[in-house]
Amino acid sequence: MSEVRAVVATGQGKPVEVTTIVVPDPGPDEVAVDVRACGICPADLRYRDDGVDGEFPMLLGHEVAGTVAAVGVGVHHVEPGDLVVLDWRAVCGTCRACRRGRPQRCCDTPTADQPMTLTDGTPLSTALGIGGFAERTLVHAAQCTKAGPAWRPAVAGLLGCGVLAGFGAAVYTAPTGPGDSVAILGCGEVGVGAVAGAVMAGARRIVVVDTDPRKLDRACRFGATHTVNAARADTVEAVRALTGGDGADVVIDTVGTPESYTHAFYARDLAGTVVLAGVPGPATRLELPLPDVLSRGGALKASRFGDCLPERDLPMMAELYLQGRLPLEKLATEKVPLEEVEAAFDRMHRGDVLRSVVTF
């Protein structure tokens, strides 16, 4: 076992702490990974503040690229020294969704059997089964996707969550077709990933909506064709005006609030598609007139991790990056040490950065 430094959330809404944790040696089908970079995602802040599906103390961080330190019995697809990206939506292969040929909807993502602990033996829960704000973490072998030697860890880790979730929401969940008009509400990492996906799918018009001009500008660098500042314009009216008065063929809500979803619902064309890609809070409720749901037709979809398959889509996304077609380096707006995670949460909450990355 190893003792390493890590960022731990000790209670709901409390500032995170840097402390020492104990990482067991890998057992069967487990892998110990020395973390080289981990993106600071809004989901981490959500876990700290809401304790979503987890108990405290909690080890945060899930957008990880790292080097395999050791493997357990039965692990053959990676070995010590390999650079890997960790997948919080790994596929089990045996659940009812996997057996029906729908692995992108796997409902039993495997995680490490052994818990990491504080030095006094207190077990740590892990946000999304990864626990990447640590010098070393322990994961299930299925959560490791081997990366190519040309991948930069600080960029590769971003593919483990938001970018891929947004890309898949546009390409797989919607799906966007050539010539479609697409509106994307929210220009964070998921929104930018959705812009990239809409570009790759051949959308003719990509409208992005946000209240932060800096985020709107960044989205344009990824291929957005039109912008709407929601602090100055009515979202629904503006999107309709930019799509011939009819609304967009596809509207992707990356915010995940009742207000944003309602805007998405009414900003789409009749028989268009709404995709929920943002993560709502645990107590969030939505009210829509049911007659409007019926009369407008179309599709209302939820996208979990963009309906992506990490083993299929991570290499494809990395290749797009290496070809210069997916400028991921523009997302990693700052690199910070473990000690600055709490301060980075504050900057993210204020909108001062698009994505901070913890590097080791």
UniProtKB/TrEMBL annotation:
The keyword Methyltransferase does not apply. Residues 190-319 form the Alcohol dehydrogenase-like C-terminal domain. GO terms for molecular function: oxidoreductase activity; zinc ion binding. The keyword Zinc applies. InterPro entries: ADH-like_C, ADH-like_N, ADH_Zn_CS, GroES-like_sf, MycoS_dep_FDH, NAD(P)-bd_dom_sf. Its cofactor is Zn(2+). Residues 27-147 form the Alcohol dehydrogenase-like N-terminal domain. Gene3D superfamilies: Medium-chain alcohol dehydrogenases, catalytic domain (3.90.180.10), NAD(P)-binding Rossmann-like Domain (3.40.50.720). Belongs to the zinc-containing alcohol dehydrogenase family. PANTHER family: NAD-DEPENDENT ALCOHOL DEHYDROGENASE, S-NITROSOMYCOTHIOL REDUCTASE MSCR. This is S-(Hydroxymethyl)mycothiol dehydrogenase. It comes from Prauserella rugosa.
